[in-house]
């Protein structure tokens, strides 16, 4: 069943913003269901999918920077990790409402809510065709879920890390501000670093670069893009070591 997909196992990084309407915060279930349908299409091709979910639609640790007198930055990061668990629960139910089998695993243990993340167990769930949702990031403060996605891609031996965004891929500059920004179909890690291109956070980039993990940045707003990406069709920007 898996002879059509280019990638057998992927890590899909979804930002929290993919769960809310453009310009809004919080969770809009129609958005969550719509991305779940795309995940379902891709999984139907036989691809194993682990989703690393962000939390920016609810809270980011960095947002309290100017309030350091009343809240420690580390505390804020833990709050951000908990936000990803809230998103994970929403994604789990949306996927299951479509008839998919899922497991929610958290890097911060939360008995009664989700399974603890254990690498070999996660791998086993994937082999059985379950969609694995990885929440609470790395479990450590001061990094982002981009770093968690890179970390999980490496340890779960994914074929690629796919970062779903609201833009079509990587540009030489912000396309919303600079009309002359050039779109890249493929990129090397050297150029990402030397030109400081906004792909993922620096820790995630250096981990993927060091360990040869390819990254695909693509627009999840285009229906069918996750499926196309899994099939290896041209979509977004491929950063290939
Ligand atoms: N976070 C953290 N450690 C992690 C992952 C996330 O401390 O391993 C915190 C961090 O404060 C981050 C927040 O959780 O800002 C939400 O995650 P992120 O900003 O990556 O969400 P996204 O931008 O993908 O929606």
TrEMBL record:
HAMAP family: PyrH_B. Catalyzes the reversible phosphorylation of UMP to UDP. It catalyses: UMP + ATP = UDP + ADP. Homohexamer. InterPro entries: AceGlu_kinase-like_sf, Asp/Glu/Uridylate_kinase, Uridylate_kinase, Uridylate_kinase_bac. Pathway: Pyrimidine metabolism; CTP biosynthesis via de novo pathway; UDP from UMP (UMPK route): step 1/1. UMP binds at residues 55, 138-145. The keyword Transferase applies. PANTHER family: URIDYLATE KINASE, URIDYLATE KINASE PUMPKIN, CHLOROPLASTIC. The keyword Translocase does not apply. Inhibited by UTP. One of its GO terms (biological process) is UDP biosynthetic process. Keywords: ATP-binding, Cytoplasm, Kinase, Nucleotide-binding, Pyrimidine biosynthesis, Transferase. It comes from the Bacteria. Its EC number is 2.7.4.22. The gene is pyrH. One of its GO terms (cellular component) is cytoplasm. It is found in: Cytoplasm. Pfam families: AA_kinase. NCBIfam families: pyrH_bact (TIGR02075). Residues 8-219 form the Aspartate/glutamate/uridylate kinase domain. It comes from Bremerella volcania. ATP binds at residues 13-16, 56, 60, 165, 171, 174. Belongs to the UMP kinase family. GO terms for molecular function: ATP binding; UMP kinase activity. This is Uridylate kinase.
């Amino acid at each position: 069943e898996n002879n059509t997909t280019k990638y057998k196992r992927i890590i899909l990084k979804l930002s929290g913003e993919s769960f809310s309407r453009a310009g809004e915060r919080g969770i809009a279930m129609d958005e969550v269901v719509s991305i779940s349908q795309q995940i379902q299409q891709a999984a139907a091709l036989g691809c194993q999918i682990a989703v690393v979910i962000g939390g920016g639609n609810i809270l980011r640790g960095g947002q309290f920077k100017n309030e350091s007198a009343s809240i420690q930055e580390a505390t804020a990061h833990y709050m951000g990790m908990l936000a990803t668990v809230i998103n994970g629960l929403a994604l789990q139910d949306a996927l299951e409402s479509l008839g998919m089998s899922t497991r929610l695993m958290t890097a911060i243990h939360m008995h009664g809510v989700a399974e603890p993340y254990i690498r070999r167990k996660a791998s086993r769930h994937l082999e059985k065709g379950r969609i694995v949702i990885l929440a609470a990031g790395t479990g450590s403060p001061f990094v982002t879920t981009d770093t968690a996605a890179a970390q999980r891609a490496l340890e779960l031996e994914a074929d690629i890390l796919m970062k779903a965004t609201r833009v079509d891929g990587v540009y030489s500059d912000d396309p919303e501000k600079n009309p002359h920004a050039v779109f890249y179909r493929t990129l090397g890690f050297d150029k990402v670093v030397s030109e400081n291109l906004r792909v993922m956070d620096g820790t995630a980039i250096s981990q993927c670069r060091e360990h040869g993990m390819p990254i695909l940045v693509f627009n999840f707003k285009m229906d069918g893009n996750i499926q196309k990406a899994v099939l290896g069709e041209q979509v977004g920007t491929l950063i290939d070591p």
